[in-house]
């Protein structure tokens, strides 16, 4: 029997090559090509014999209408409010969810807690529910040790240690299947119909496809745990993210005690929704008010200029994470450049956008910020991606440059254009209400359309708003008093 010719598949993008090369022509990654033997014929899945001969020509589809009693299936709520928020109000039966994150971030801990909450009587949804936890990386005793540490050892969770997809489907493809199945992790699963090793593109794609197929057929919630690469992307083929219904990223810094669960794809809810958890000795504890956590020990209720902790180079940004307003502190430090090339160190924000703001400050406001070393940090480890943080970053930079503190009871948000104009952003009312709830008294906001000439402060959502139409107005607000400037010149001369 002639051996089929080998092919080399990129583990980064899934591109197929006829021979091995050091660099993939599809994505440009190095040393990602692995030899995989192709199948001799089309796969018929794990069903015996594949397709029957009388069905190879196709069969009519069973069309149904939109209306009907099964149009809105009841969601499976876990009882963990932050997890239910990110999933869109609970898991939908028959859906497939992919949870990815760095090693040791808490993926297995959170999903074991969620499975225990669903399986513990009485069920959160009001009806009896069951949950199964299938691990391909640990032994049963290791999972029991973690359950004992989390305080859920008495929960009736079905545990299994398996990595063969055929054995897993044989246990799940039957009446009375569990309502929720957690597979930890999808990179350890393998199909015996494929010759490649577990974790390769073909195995990850094939194993996920078979598991998702049985989940849709039996109507249980399938949660897949995925590994990430050193760049932070989900390991395996990109098609894996298209196959599932929701993709949840588990983020967090090792030096911080909290974790962030972010939804980047959700067919049954809002995307970019976040859930905040705090890592403790007994597992992950949900944080109902993340704004107070991100602000930390900042004294926001003290009048401006009275607190000893009020320092320059700090501004509070009122941002939006999905449908939730979140207040976070942005810290900046501007120092003289010791070397010829100014240094940029950015944590929690886009470094390219920081370069754009410094260029606008230099070109439109006549400052020399770009010639200095700039260090920018989003306190608490949260990563901000929305452009509404431009004005808060500029306020922190100007405050550090002029050594003039931003008032402690002030929040800032707005998008900066290349012309220096400050553009309006969405969800203004929600941002202001969250700031007022935490005790802030003033907000520096963009000028609304049709109200550009008005600079008077007006009460809105319990706050006094100060409209800012151009970046030069922010420079004027954060300029040091003339007496202080003269005093500094005299001290420098002496």
Account of the 3D structure:
The chain is an alpha/beta fold and 494 residues long. The protein has three domains: 1-38; 75-288, P-loop containing nucleotide triphosphate hydrolases (Rossmann fold), CATH 3.40.50; 311-482, Ribosomal Protein S5, domain 2 (2-Layer Sandwich). 25% of the residues lie in helices and 23% in strands. It is built from twelve helices and 22 strands. The chain has helices at 81-86, 107-119, 140-150, 165-172, 201-218, 239-243, 290-295, 351-365, 390-402, 428-437, 471-477, 482-493, and strands spanning 7-10, 16-17, 33-36, 96-101, 131-135, 158-161, 180-184, 221-226, 246-251, 258-266, 274-280, 283-286, 314-321, 324-335, 344-347, 373-378, 410-412, 415-416, 422-423, 442-446, 458-460, 463-468. The strands form four sheets. Strands 6-5-7-8-4-9-10-11-12 form a nine-stranded mixed β-sheet. A hairpin with a 2-residue loop joins β11 (274-280) and β12. α4 (165-172) runs parallel beside α5 (201-218). It is globular, with a radius of gyration of 28 Å.
């Amino acid at each position: 029997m002639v051996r089929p010719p080998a092919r080399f598949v990129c583990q980064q993008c899934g591109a197929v090559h006829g021979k091995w090369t050091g660099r993939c022509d599809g994505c440009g990654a190095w040393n990602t090509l692995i030899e995989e033997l192709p199948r001799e014929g089309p796969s018929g899945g794990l069903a015996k014999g594949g397709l029957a001969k009388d069905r190879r020509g196709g069969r009519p589809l069973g069309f149904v209408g939109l209306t009907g009693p099964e149009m809105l299936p009841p969601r499976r709520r876990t009882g963990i409010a932050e997890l239910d928020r990110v999933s869109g109000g609970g898991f939908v039966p028959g859906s497939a969810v992919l949870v990815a994150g760095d090693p040791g971030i808490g993926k297995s801990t959170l999903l074991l807690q969620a499975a225990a909450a669903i399986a513990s009587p009485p069920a959160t949804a009001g009806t009896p529910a069951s949950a199964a936890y299938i691990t391909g990386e640990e032994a049963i005793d290791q999972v029991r040790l973690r359950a004992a540490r989390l305080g859920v050892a008495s929960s009736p969770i079905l545990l299994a240690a398996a990595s063969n997809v055929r054995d897993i489907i044989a246990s799940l493809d039957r009446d009375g299947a569990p309502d929720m199945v957690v597979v930890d992790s999808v990179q350890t699963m393998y199909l015996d119909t494929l010759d490649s090793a577990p974790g390769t593109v073909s195995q990850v794609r094939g194993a996920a496809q078979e598991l998702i197929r049985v989940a849709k057929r039996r109507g249980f919630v399938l949660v897949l745990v995925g590994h990430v690469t050193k760049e932070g992307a989900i390991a395996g083929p990109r098609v894996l993210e298209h196959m599932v219904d929701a993709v949840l990223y588990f983020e967090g810094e090792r030096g911080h005690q909290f974790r962030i669960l972010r939804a980047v794809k959700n067919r049954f809810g809002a995307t970019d929704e976040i859930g905040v958890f705090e890592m403790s000795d007994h597992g992950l504890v949900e944080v109902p008010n993340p704004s107070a956590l991100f602000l930390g020990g900042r004294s926001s209720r003290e009048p401006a200029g009275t607190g000893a902790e009020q320092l320059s180079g700090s501004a509070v940004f009122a941002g939006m994470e999905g449908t939730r307003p979140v207040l976070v502190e942005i810290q900046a430090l501007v120092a003289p450049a010791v070397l010829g090339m100014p240094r940029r160190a950015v944590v929690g924000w886009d470094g390219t956008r920081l370069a754009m703001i410094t260029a606008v400050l230099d070109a439109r406001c006549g400052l020399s910020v770009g010639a200095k070393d700039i260090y920018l940090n989003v306190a608490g480890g949260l990563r901000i991606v929305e452009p509404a943080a431009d004005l808060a970053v500029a306020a922190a930079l100007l405050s550090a440059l002029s050594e003039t503190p931003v008032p402690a009871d002030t929040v800032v948000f707005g998008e900066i254009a290349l012309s220096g104009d400050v553009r309006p952003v969405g969800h203004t009312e929600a941002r202001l209400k969250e700031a007022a709830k935490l005790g802030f008294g003033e907000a520096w906001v963009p000028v609304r359309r049709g109200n550009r000439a008005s600079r008077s402060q007006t009460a809105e959502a319990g706050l006094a708003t100060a409209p800012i139409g151009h970046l030069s107005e922010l420079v004027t607000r954060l300029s040091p008093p003339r007496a202080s400037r003269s005093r500094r010149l005299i001290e420098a001369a002496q």
